[in-house]
Design brief:
This protein is mostly beta strands. It has two domains: about 80 residues, Elongation Factor Tu (Ef-tu), domain 3; about 80 residues, conserved putative lor/sdh protein from methanococcus maripaludis s2 fold, CATH 2.40.420.20. The protein contains one helix and 15 strands, in the order E-E-E-H-E-E-E-E-E-E-E-E-E-E-E-E. Strands 3-6-5-4-7 form a five-stranded antiparallel sheet, with no helix packed on it. Strands 8-13-12 form a three-stranded antiparallel sheet, with no helix packed on it. The termini are far apart.
Length: about 200
């Protein structure tokens, strides 16, 4: 039986073990890295920011994505795209001074690629698709809805940037099977800037 070897770096010192079993496994917790995947569609934007020397922030959330565990930054990208999933792996580094992150822990990572200013945001559920592209139902002064074609931008959680809707306009977020251009609706939850489409 042949002898195999492996190597790893610890604080700049290379240790080599020539044996058939491991002598020790060292897990570094401070700092610690998180590996996650993003869709390949975002790769050009990420590379553009890296070429500018931008330090892109990464937040790690718990399983429910409600509690932020730690904040870090993008460290490196994988050098190939996974053809089966259309994603690329990213490594982020976290100081982890409070030891909120552990080895083999499941976290949801959120990478901030860029910040957009002066954009109009709508709930993603308001955006519908037809043969011509994306559209929303916009509430009119006479309590009817009108179809408005929109250009969809970045989505972050429960907000999507769109062009084609003016700030302050109310859009429908449900009952799309009952909506069509010119249908009267009753507004609900109007205080939060959304309307629920109802039957005439």
């Amino acid at each position: 039986m042949g002898v195999w070897g492996f190597a790893w770096w610890i604080r700049g010192i290379l240790f080599r073990v020539e044996a058939q079993r491991r002598l020790v496994v060292v897990t570094q917790l401070q700092p610690i890295t998180v590996i996650f995947s993003v869709a390949e569609d975002y790769l050009p934007q990420i590379q553009q920011q890296l070429n500018r020397g931008s330090r892109m922030p990464v937040d790690a959330f718990d399983h429910s994505q409600k509690k932020k565990l730690a904040s870090g930054s993008l460290q490196t990208l994988d050098n190939q795209i996974d053809p089966t999933t259309g994603t690329i792996k990213i490594r982020a580094i976290f100081a982890n001074q409070d030891s909120a992150l552990f080895a083999n822990q499941f976290v949801n990572a959120r990478l901030q690629i860029d910040t957009e200013h002066g954009v109009t945001l709508v709930p993603p559920v308001a955006i519908q698709l037809n043969g011509q592209g994306a559209f929303v139902y916009v509430l009119q002064p006479d309590q009817t809805v009108a179809i408005r074609t929109v250009t969809v931008g970045t989505t972050d959680g429960n907000q999507t940037a769109v062009q084609g809707v003016n700030p302050g306009e109310v859009v429908a977020t449900s009952n799309f099977d009952k909506l069509q251009d010119g249908v009267k609706v009753a507004v609900q939850n109007g205080a939060n800037g959304t309307s629920q489409g109802n039957s005439p």
